[in-house]
Amino acid sequence: MICEKIFRSRAGKTIVLRVTEGRVEITGDFFGSEEDLEKLERDLSNLRSSDARILGVDNDELLEKVKECFSRT
Fold first, then answer.
1. Nearest Cα to 52, choosing from 24, 72, 71?
2. DSSP 35-49
3. Which residues are within 8 A (CB) of 26 and not within 5 positions of it... i.e. 6 or more apart?
4. CB 14 within 8 A of CB 6
5. pLDDT (average), residues 19-47
């Protein structure tokens, strides 16, 4: 595992972000379809912004956190 971040999103939701080699996993108390969550994780794994819709999550905020993880390695 490269890093794990647990934080409150700007919308007040708890987010657990795990970054491993080649994969990003996101869990938390937000709302969205499984398909959108998979798309978001795939896009973040490729270090790009996503158009997936997850309530309570700012995709750009997540991308910043993922980039922070990679910059620490």
1. 24
2. HHHHHHHHHHHTT--
3. 15, 16, 17, 18, 37, 40, 41, 44, 57, 62
4. yes
5. 94
Indicate yes or no: pTM above 0.90.
Answer: no
**Contact present, 41 and 25 (Cβ < 8 Å):** yes
Domain residues of the chain, as ranges?
3-71
Which pair of structure tokens corresponds to residue 32? 């969205």
Q: How far apart are the first and last CA of the chain?
A: 11
CB-CB contact of 20 with 4 (8 Å): no
